[in-house]
Design brief:
Residues 1-21 have a biased composition (Basic and acidic residues). Residues 337-645 form the DUF7905 domain. Residues 25-61 have a biased composition (Polar residues). Residues 1-68 are annotated as: Disordered. By secondary structure, the chain is of the alpha+beta class. It folds into 3 domains: 67-138, 2-Layer Sandwich (Ribosomal Protein S8, Chain: A, domain 1); 172-252, Ribosomal Protein S8, Chain: A, domain 1 (2-Layer Sandwich), CATH 3.30.1370.10; 260-317 and 337-454 and 469-664, mRNA Triphosphatase Cet1, Chain A, CATH 3.20.100.10. Helices cover 28% and strands 25% of the residues. An 8-stranded antiparallel barrel has the order 11-18-17-16-15-21-22-24, surrounded by 4 helices. The protein has a 4-stranded antiparallel beta sheet with strand order 1-2-4-3. A 3-stranded antiparallel beta sheet has the order 5-7-6, with helices on one face. A hairpin with a 4-residue loop joins strand 6 (217-221) and strand 7 (226-231).
Length: 677
């Protein structure tokens, strides 16, 4: 039996549209010696501070100031307010507080309500922080005077003794056994599989973690390429052997990527042809306006033509006389699919099963951020054969075009440009699904270029230090009810491992399924650029993001995501309003001040619909906590081999919800009456 996903060469390789056109652009897949509200900066607030928001006035209010901010000793007035105090007016405008410099007290006096004053003081603190980071003289060079340590209590002494005993117990497994142990095991590592240094780590750091956790002696015989394990306990040596094997597999096995472009089996025979994208069609990813039109001119989408005839549709491209003869001779075959087309759904499930099986298994032992989600939208063509004047059969599209390695397409997830267009969808979910109590939930995504670790203050002052290329990172952060930073994470190397899309020729919305992974950056390094940046993030009273500039962290795109979630058929349906700001299009005179996004309209806005299982999130969360050689509790069977979870069940639920979307969500972009896509 032939492989249903084997790629075949197109019959028109010489007519391939453009081999140089790539895929649609993808998204760019705590201070030390600094100051905040709890530091040595001196500020105060009088009882006159009002609680209501007052408009900013350029005239100095009468009476004493409501608050003040004292310049720190390491900062000059020019450092804080700029040459000629030019920054003072801009800060007053952006914060809503009236500000003036008090020469006698070496402080900035503030008038306004509490929200405006807090915003102004936050801006001033951020400027002082940046100055402190550049000042190498602020670094402590001598040990700080302090009180002598107090004597430990009896309970503290017992805890310290136990800790020291545990450290000594662990250290003994880092050497060689001093006596013969009853349990012994051997693990063979082929010399050509992976470098031994990659397995044991620098100074045996990876191997030491297994030794300590499993209380097992482990030696490596370089001549015979084997690991010898010794232990007093049979369970310990079994655990150490399993973790050593898992770690070896993790090091030598690369993620197995897979891409599939599928076509959902139609209910009747039909033909397809190309059409240009409507002017109001939203692409897969945000593209700056100066490049968007050029990209649009190259792209196409399918238009469906209901023919009702089986097999060959050659008469569409023949003479008019031959077409009429074929039309008359084929009336009895109206609506019939070819035998090949009748197996599309079955073959699609086989492809999905194989790609998910390989992809998930290759990621199972990785301590990475893994996600799997199904999205709905409209498929358009990026790289395709030149057939603008021809009509394509189901077989030509599904068996030839979609399987050609040159073919590229993308699913645009935009389902609407306005919330009103989704009213019927919300109404359906409100009666047929269970709404989450936290709806709607807001989070922010920042796409940035950054260095993974912070530079020293001395290096920051130098302009010619070569630190290599910046990393592309993705930060996601949520906020508490008080507007402070809540849960957050930063990842890099975002990759689509499994990318499966399924084109629906009979309904306006198609779907795709992606398995994605990314590498998490440390969140406990208080000097890392992403940690400093995230700590300074705040929310404005209007719910928009306020971010302060940080050295070595250059944000490029900011997205505000508002999500409504519903439980439907053991799946979570997610409706997401995505608002996007392109920082290259935001022009400001002074980039050292915090940026309040409530002052700028989003450059792009769309509504997206996706579905997934909460169990998927819970299982993948285990991978983030894996130690060396540890394995998560989930297996491939949990995703693909049970009665509740398997490829057929997933596909059937996706098709059912796709039909619901087609009936309750009007197509937002313009189209001709004959088009269904």
């Amino acid at each position: 039996m032939s492989d249903p996903f084997k790629r075949e060469d197109s019959s028109d390789d010489d007519q391939w549209r453009d081999p140089h056109i790539g895929e649609t652009p993808t998204p760019s897949t705590r201070f030390s010696n600094t100051f905040d509200d709890n530091s040595t900066l001196v500020s105060g607030r009088s009882s006159r501070a009002s609680t209501a928001m007052e408009p900013f006035t350029s005239t100095r209010p009468a009476g004493s100031p409501d608050d003040y901010w004292v310049l720190p000793p390491h900062c000059t007035l020019t450092d804080i307010l700029g040459t000629g105090r030019t920054r003072l007016k801009e800060m007053a405008r952006s914060t809503g507080a009236y500000m003036t410099y008090n020469d006698a007290l070496h402080q900035i006096d503030l008038w306004g309500d509490s929200l405006c004053i807090d915003k102004a003081k936050h801006s001033l603190n951020m400027i002082a922080n940046r100055i402190a980071e550049l000042d190498v003289t602020l670094l402590r060079k001598t040990k700080k005077w302090s009180r002598p340590d107090r004597e430990l209590t009896n309970e503290e002494k017992r805890r310290e003794e136990k800790r020291q005993q545990r450290i000594l117990e662990e250290k003994k497994y880092l050497g060689e056994p001093t006596e013969k142990l009853p349990y012994y095991s051997v693990y063979y590592s082929p010399s050509d599989a992976v470098s031994i240094n990659r397995i044991v780590g620098n100074n045996d750091s990876y191997l030491n973690q297994i030794r300590i956790d499993c209380k097992t002696y482990i030696e490596y015989d370089a001549q015979n390429h084997i690991f010898r394990l010794y232990s007093n306990d049979e369970a310990n040596i079994k655990a150490a052997s399993a973790r050593l094997r898992n770690w070896h597999l993790r090091c030598c096995r690369e993620p197995e990527a897979g891409v599939a472009r599928l076509m959902q089996q139609p209910s009747a025979n039909l033909a397809l042809k190309y059409r240009k994208l409507p002017p109001d069609f939203v692409l897969y990813d945000y593209v700056p306006p100066d490049r968007e039109q050029e990209l649009r001119d190259r792209l196409r989408m399918f238009e469906t033509i209901t023919t009702g005839f089986e097999a060959s549709i050659a008469y569409w491209n023949a003479s008019m006389e031959d077409s009429l003869i074929s039309l008359n001779d084929s009336q009895q075959m109206r609506g019939a699919l070819s035998e090949r087309a009748k197996t599309l759904d079955k073959r699609n499930e086989e492809v999905i099963q194989r790609l998910l099986d390989r992809g998930l298994e290759s990621l199972r032992l990785k301590d990475w951020d893994i996600r799997m989600k199904i999205r709905f939208g409209t498929i358009y063509l990026v790289d395709y054969p030149k057939r603008d004047q021809m009509h394509l059969t189901i077989e030509e599209v599904s068996d030839k075009m979609f399987k050609n390695e040159k073919f590229k397409s993308a699913l645009a997830p935009c389902m609407s440009k306005s919330l009103e267009n989704l009213d019927m969808l919300f109404e359906y979910l409100g009666t047929k699904a269970q709404e989450f109590s936290e709806n709607p939930k807001t989070s922010f995504v920042i796409l940035a270029h950054q260095y993974p670790i912070a530079a020293s203050p001395a290096d920051l002052r130098k302009k010619d230090v070569n630190r290599g290329e910046m990393w592309k990172t993705r930060m996601e952060v949520a906020f508490t009810d008080k507007g402070e930073r809540g849960l957050w994470s930063t990842v890099t190397q975002c990759t689509n491992l499994v990318d499966i899309s399924c084109f629906n020729a009979e309904q306006p919305y198609s779907w795709d399924l992606k398995v994605q992974f990314a590498r998490s950056l440390p969140y406990d390094d208080v000097n890392a650029p992403h940690e400093k940046f995230s700590k300074n993030l705040k929310l404005s009273p209007s719910g928009r993001l306020i971010m302060a500039p940080v050295f070595d962290y250059n944000p490029k795109i900011v997205k505000q995501k508002t999500k409504w979630r519903y439980s439907w058929h053991d799946f979570t349906i997610e409706i997401c309003q995505e608002e996007l700001w392109d920082l290259d299009r935001i022009k400001r005179k002074d980039t050292t001040l915090p940026l309040d996004f409530s002052e700028f309209q989003p450059h792009h806005k769309q509504f997206k619909v996706s579905m997934y299982k909460e169990q998927w999130i819970d299982r993948f969360a285990e991978n983030l906590r894996l130690g060396v050689g540890e394995a998560p509790s989930w297996t491939i069977r949990d995703f693909l081999g049970t009665e509740e979870e398997n490829v057929h069940t997933i596909v059937q639920n996706v098709k059912e919800f796709g039909q619901i979307l087609a009936s309750v969500v009007p197509v937002y972009f313009g189209q001709s009456a004959a088009s269904l896509v």
